[in-house]
TrEMBL record:
PANTHER family for the chain: TRYPTOPHAN SYNTHASE ALPHA CHAIN, CHLOROPLASTIC (PTHR43406:SF1), TRYPTOPHAN SYNTHASE, ALPHA CHAIN (PTHR43406)
Membrane spanning residue stretches: none
Gene name of the encoded protein: trpA
Name the UniProt record assigns to this protein: Tryptophan synthase alpha chain
Source organism (scientific name): Eisenbergiella tayi
Keywords recorded for this protein, A-Z: Amino-acid biosynthesis, Aromatic amino acid biosynthesis, Lyase, Tryptophan biosynthesis
InterPro entries, A to Z: Aldolase_TIM, RibuloseP-bd_barrel, Trp_synthase_suA
Length: 259
């Protein structure tokens, strides 16, 4: 069974993202465990891909570094295996349809089940086209996590009614990346979602400061941070552990201030 609900059971959740294999597989394992120690409630693991269309420059460059270092989908699964030897923190993959398709849907999700991967986010999989994938994921205990961006109330309702795990609320249009201000009326989106489901909602895209995390968590069930974490890893490489822990502690404090 998915452990995603555990991330939200003690209050607002802080969800951290990093790219597998940047700067190395060993360091990715270490940094996931460091972030859990510092208070992360769930970790999203990016599977490196050559054309990550939803990502900004920071995460694109992390993908390039990881691929150049030899990271593969099997390598990412091995990272999860090593994390699972020490931790049962909820883990979610963030990837694109192409790597899953080429691995083979059945083989990919069977591997996820074997290693206790709890969910998957696929930004380039339209809601209307999730039909062939969703049953395979579900049969292997993997939540196919829906993303909701600022759009029509009818579409938000449809996506929310069929959601699993948690709902990823996109704070603003465009690609991932740090933003100085987030001006989308997120409370209205969350209210629409809550009319049709009790599944938690977490806000991502652009969050980088404890103040932003508190503001986003105040209108939802948690905050998701990716680019700011990837920037810390890019700046510090194999010595990012302490900086990551300090940053995650501050962001967790911001999220919990919204409780």
């Amino acid at each position: 069974m998915s452990k995603i609900k555990n991330a939200f059971q003690n209050g607002k959740a802080f969800i951290a993202f990093l790219t597998a294999g940047d700067p190395s597989a060993d360091k990715t394992v270490e940094y996931i465990l460091d972030m859990e120690e510092a208070g992360a409630d769930l970790v999203e693991i990016g599977i490196p891909f050559s054309d990550p269309t939803a990502e900004g420059v920071v995460i694109q460059e992390a993908n390039i570094r990881a691929l150049k270092a030899g990271m593969t989908t099997d390598g990412v699964f091995d990272i999860v295996r090593r994390v699972r030897e020490k931790s049962q923190i909820p883990l979610v993959f963030l990837t694109y349809l192409n790597p899953v398709f080429h691995y083979g849907y059945d083989a990919f999700f069977e591997k996820c089940r074997e290693l206790s991967v709890d969910g998957i986010i696929i930004p380039d999989l339209p809601f209307e086209e999730k039909g062939e994938l969703a049953p395979i994921a579900a049969s292997n205990g993997v939540d196919l996590i829906s993303m909701i961006s600022p759009t029509s109330e009818e579409r938000i309702r449809k996506i929310a009614e069929d959601a699993a795990g948690f709902i990823y609320i996109v704070s603003s249009m465009g690609v991932t990346g740090v933003r100085s201000q987030i001006t989308t009326d997120l409370s209205s989106i969350v209210n629409m979602v809550r009319k049709v489901t009790k599944i938690p909602c977490a806000v991502g895209f652009g969050i980088s400061t404890p103040e932003q995390a508190e503001k986003m968590a105040a209108v939802s069930d948690g905050a998701i941070v990716g680019s700011a974490i990837v920037k810390i890893i890019a700046a510090n490489g194999a010595n990012a552990g302490e900086a990551l822990k300090e940053y995650v502690r501050s962001m967790k404090a911001g999220v919990r201030a919204a409780d």
